[in-house]
Amino acid sequence: MTETAPALTPPPPADGPDGRFANDDLLPVPPERRSWKTYHFAALWIGMAINVPTWTLAAGLIALGMDWVQAVLTIAVANVIVLAPMLLTGHVGPKYGIPFPVLARASFGVLGANVPALLRGLAACAWFGIQTWVGGQSIWFLAGRLFGAGSWWNEAGEIGGRAWTLWLCFVLFFLIEVGIILRGMDTLRRFESWAAPVMIVGAVLLLVWIAGEAGGFGPLLDQPSALGWGGDFWEVFFPALMGMIGFWSTLSLNIPDFTRFGSGQRAQVWGQSLGLPTTMAAFALLSVLVTSGSQAVYGEPVWDPAELAARMDNELGVVFALFVILLATLTTNIAANLVSPAYDLSNVAPRRINFRAGALIAAGVGMLMFPWELYENPDIYIFTWLGTVGGLLGTVSGILIADYWLLRATRLEVADLYRASGRYWYRGGWNWRALVAFGAGGVLAVGGSYSGPYPEDGLIPFLQPLADYGWAVGLGVSFVVHALLMRLIPARAAEG
Q1: 3-state helix, strand, coil in the chain (%, to 5)
Q2: DSSP assigned state of 27
Q3: What is the spatial distance between Cα 213 and Cα 160, in angstroms, rounded to a whole number?
Q4: Distance of alpha carbon 479 from its chain centroid, rounded?
Q5: What does residue 392 show for φ and ψ, rounded to 5 degrees?
Q6: How far apart are CA 284 and CA 414, in angstroms?
Q7: Is 297 exposed, middle or buried (0-12, 13-18, 19+ CB in 10 A)?
Q8: Which stretches of the chain drop beneath a pLDDT of 70?
Q9: How many other CB atoms are there within 10 angstroms of residue 159's CB atom?
């Protein structure tokens, strides 16, 4: 995809030393190419929010003792809260047409921006690998149902302890994802636009089917809360709320990667507001209703939609249900986990890595992280790595929001974002104030996090009370520290 700078914005230098910090994919999207409307942003969020992990969110909350009302309420409130940083950081997209790594240059420095960019990119690479593995399993399972239980497909020999047909499906799903993203963001916009209504129809049809089988939705909806609405509930509510916020906290950083294609602020504000909290709450409610019906039919709640679909007697219904699950995984993985690292890696070496090359590298890194092992060892992945990264990303959000809204009042000198001699160069390309804020917020956010599945495994024991609020703590602390340091020790134009 080829992009040039907007006519009203001085273009960054394309030759000499400054050429190290720009390529066609990192330059601002010109106004004539900012074509995404309200529907496109809403469809983007519908495509990303409708997936298997979202479906099972309510299950986790009910397992904690909540009833269905409390679970859906918690999810809805969390997504209204996380919508705020989405809209705040997303504002820069329609206004300046720049992606997340370039926005980060204003606060971290032209070179320092690689710290938050690579942090966000690595998290996305790991998620990309895991979702690709899940998508490959869906294809393998679907083909197995079509060929039959005793077929050569299901009796295939093993490679590395797994059927070679499963590895084949894994590679196939990987190639489908890469093929879509290599065609550019316009292809992604069109794909998300038609996929969104298909997934909504599929989820509703699953509800209609289970309702017909169950004759109603009594068992789970009638189950009282084990927590009540008193102190026990609030003790669970706030940590659970942070977990639900953390579900999409990564996108609150790199949402400019999408809003830079927006036709205006109205499109991104209304599109995200209509797409994110409403879809998450409605999908959580839908999952509770369907699971309630499964309990009435099978005598136990079946929270995994793939497992539930497999119990259908109608082969056509199984195929359609699993197709929708596959589509949901595909739309979520490409938009949420491949676009971001593509830009992030391009930001590291703009002369050598464009968007397409960044996407290929990110996809390869995701595969090299052995996602099948991460998927089967959730303690290591969730408690040790993802929890830490999630807390650190909250600190980055605080710095970006403080810098763009409080300190700069949304005014940026776009040309200087691509220069080695402009106002965002700071000292040698690094803004130490942002790094200090990042360190302070990061320590408080993740210092008390568990390094294993048990509370006694906390990294810094006396910070454990903050561990369940890591995202909020990191965002708040980094916001305040960055704003204070920038006010008390202003950066000079010739700092380094």
Answers
A1: 70, 0, 30
A2: S
A3: 40
A4: 21
A5: -65, -35
A6: 41
A7: middle
A8: 1-19, 184-189, 191-194, 219-220, 223, 375-387, 390, 449-459, 493-496
A9: 12
**Cα distance between residue 342 and residue 336, in whole Å:** 11
Closest CA to 193 of 331, 378, 352: 331
The 8-class DSSP code of residue 304 comes to: -
Placement of tokens 């002369």 in the chain: 351
- Which residue, among 306, 260, 320, 247, has the nearest Cα to 48 in the 3D structure? 247
Tell me the C-alpha distance between 356 and 363, whole Å.
Answer: 11
- Cα–Cα distance measured from residue 354 to residue 201, given in angstroms and rounded to the nearest whole number: 37
What six digits make up the tokens of 255?
A: 């949402």
Reading the block at residue 138, the tokens are 């869906």
pLDDT tens digits, one per residue of 40-77: 999 888 878 877 777 777 777 777 778 788 888 888 89
DSSP 409: T
pLDDT digits (tens, 9 = 90+) for 72-111: 888 889 889 889 999 999 999 999 999 999 999 999 999 9
Residue 76 token pair: 């809805």
Contact, 148 vs 110, CB < 8 A?
no
99 contact partners, CB below 8 Å, separation of at least 6: 25, 26, 254, 256, 257, 260, 343, 347
Identify the helix (H) or strand (E) that includes residue 36: none
Please list the residues that pair with 450 across neighbouring strands: 458
The domain 32-106+139-370 having CATH identifier 1.10.4160.10: the answer here is: yes
Q: What is the CA radius of gyration of the chain?
A: 23
Cα–Cα dist 75/249, whole Å: 14
Rounded-to-integer distance, Cα 303 and Cα 197, Å: 22
Q: Where are the domains positioned within the chain?
A: 32-106+139-370, 377-496
Q: Which long-range contacts (CB under 8 A, 24 or more apart) does 206-211 make?
A: 206/290, 206/305, 206/308, 206/309, 206/321, 206/324, 207/286, 207/289, 207/290, 207/293, 209/312, 209/317, 210/290, 210/293, 210/294, 210/297, 210/308, 211/289, 211/293
| Assigned token pair, 398 | 């605080």
Do the beta carbons of residue 414 and residue 98 sit within 8 Å? Answer: yes
Answer whether 426's CB lies under 8 Å from 495's CB.
Answer: yes
User: pLDDT for 158-215, tens place per residue?
Assistant: 888 888 999 999 999 899 888 877 776 666 667 666 677 777 787 788 888 888 887 7
In angstroms, the CA 165 to CA 221 distance is 40
What is the C-alpha separation between 481 and 46, in angstroms, rounded? 35
Sole residue written with tokens 């070179």? 111
Is 132 in contact with 333 (CB distance < 8 Å)? yes
Cα–Cα distances in Å, from 108 out to 16, 114, 219, 437? 23, 8, 53, 10
Joined together, the tokens standing for residue 48 give 């990303």
Other C-beta atoms closer than 10 Å to the C-beta of 24 total 14
Question: Cα–Cα distances in Å, from 319 out to 49, 145, 311?
Answer: 22, 8, 12
